[in-house]
# Entry
Amino acid sequence: MRFKLFSIANILTLINAFFGCCALVMLFSANYEYAFYCTLFSLVADFFDGFAARKFNSNSDLGKQLDSLADAISFGVVPGVAVFMLLQGNSPLMPEELFTSYGLLFDSVKFLAFLIPLFSILRLAKFNLDERQSDHFIGLATPANTIFWMGYLALHNAHQYTFTGHIFLVVFLILMSSFLLIAEIPMFSFKFKNYQWKGNEVRYLFLLVSFALFLYFKVFAACMVVLLYIVLSLVIHMTKRKVPSSE
# Structure
C-alpha cells in the first residue's frame, strides 16, 4: 500500500509535532514563555492541517494517524510536563512546611501531572473512533486543555503564588481537566462550513473576545479564554436541551 507522505496537510501536522518538541525543550529549560509560544505555533499548525486537508481534498487514514500522534506530543505530553514542572518540589507552589511534615507524600504529588497525557491520549483515540464529532467536539479538545495549562504555568511563574492551598487547587484542576477531556459534553468547534456571520455567531464573538483578552492580558489571558470556551459550550448545550423538539 502506497501513501502520499508529504501533502501540505501532513507537512503542517509534522510542524505541529516539531513545535511540540520545541515546547518540551523550553519547559525543561524553564523558558516558560517561549514554551507557551511554541505551543501556539503547534496550535496554528494543527488548525491549518485540517483546513488544508479539506481545501485540497487530501483527507487520508495516514493523515488521521499522523494528526493524533502529533497531538499526543503537543497537546498531551507538553501540558503534562508543564504541570509536572509546576508541581516539582523546588517550586514556590510547594511551601517548605509541607515537605517538612509530609515530604515523600507531597513530593509524589507531581506525578499526578501525567494523568493529563494519559487522558489526552485516551481522548484522541476516542475522537478517532467517534463519528459524532464531525462539526463539534464531545469533551474538551486537547489543544484547549493545553492552552489552559500553559497559561496557568505562565501566570504562576509571573506571580509566584506560595499559599499552601494552591497545590490542592492544582490537583483539583488536574482531575477536572482530565474528566473534561473524556466527558460526554458537547463543545463547539472552529470548523467553519462557511465564513458568514449567520450560523457562526458564537465562534466569531468568542474569537473577538479572546483577541481582546490576549491583547490586554497577553499570555495570562489563556486561562480566561479556555474557561470562557467551556462556559459558553455548557450554556449552549443547556439551552439546546431546554428547547423542545419541533419533530
Notes: Residues 105 and 151 are 27 Å apart (CA to CA). The longest helix spans residues 61-87. The radius of gyration is 19 Å. Residues 8-193 form a domain with the Four Helix Bundle (Hemerythrin (Met), subunit A) fold (CATH 1.20.120).
